[in-house]
Amino acid sequence: MNDPAVTGRCAPRGITQLEIDQRVYDLYDEYCHGAMERREFLARAASLAVVGGLAMAQALLPRYAEAQTISFTDSRIKANYVTYASPGGNSGTMRGYLVQPAGSGPFPAVLVIHENRGLNPYIEDVARRAAVEGFLALAPDGLHPAGGYPGNDDDGRTLQAGLDQARLRVDLTNSARYLKAHKLSTGRLGVTGFCFGGGIVNFLAAALGADMQAGVPYYGVAADTASVARIKAPLLCHLAENDERINSTYPAFEAALKAAGVAHQVLVYPGTQHGFHNNSTPRYNEPAARLSWERTVAHFKQHLA
């Protein structure tokens, strides 16, 4: 479903989305997903037959200081890092960023899954945003068994690619179960995630079945259609218009969801790029990010109450 409610494009600094050539976006998508190193990405962007290709490429690299919308000292929340058991995972333990709303609880729970580079400051901020809305939020760091998020996305992407991916999924499944059973949780669990994390939302919906009450994947690859019959959680799927790699996985997924009677909605945001919710780069689309987050919160409030 193409969403007509989103108009306009915004970037947090300097070069705007409208000024960046789509070919540079396409190269950045390859770079983000491990198809090339940063040096190659910059060199290939500079070699394009477009004025300012290198500057466009440099503008797309994240500036996480600009992504913070909720301070970690905000009086409405309390945040800390927690370590918990993860049997069958990459190391047997996991670490995550747990954020609770002010008050004694219990609270409905929301798991926030990172992209393919570990628990970076943007994802921590999303967890704080969820807590401000009244949810007990946990953002696990899939890189914990490899030493944790290293402080930059290039090394984070390399570390995550080097993990046993099946065991990484076990670690994230264990994170969901840890949050659901937390003493501050009502036991009703929602899951959201971005890019790699969006795909994990779809995976967890099938893996957890009735133990998951709502899912909101952002531009995440669809779950295997053979697993769809196990999904019980209503899904709200946010997709970017200019994201063929991800969007091509959805027609069969939607058909399987419909056949299985799973409540779902798939929204495509016009004029957006993969990563439009991430406010640390010019891929950020403020109207789409704001609207999609409002819908995400409403979805969780409806199904986790």
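Next protein, fold it too.
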Amino acid sequence: MKSYRKELWFNTPRRRDYINITPTVEQCLAESGIREGLVLVNAMHITASVFINDDESGLHHDFEAWLEKLAPEKPHSQYQHNGNEDNADAHLKRQVMGREVVAAVTDGKLDLGPWEQIFYGEFDGMRRKRVLVKIVGE
């Protein structure tokens, strides 16, 4: 069995953002040489997420509106966590959107559904953060 590991780095210009990282994960898969196996993609920060969904701007707007209803950013004083920081809402948003995805690798390709794409979700941006890509297989 072979193993491949790479860190992807992001620094979003906004506090919240959704970035399609599918092409980058596909590039990692090509670099790995693995034809059959699994790919794990996970956020290495507790205020960011990796998830699979459709790459459709209306849906991304809906994510933003829904998450803001569930865990509004302001007022910052509503959260016990916010003392020296103001990112409690980002921790909660990450909890809902998830930490990682695992996808099958079949014949050297990501085995995703017809509309599925892999996204990095940022909920407390404007600073450098990383995502781990780990691929194992043959």
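About the second fold: The helical segments are 22-32, 57-70, 88-97.
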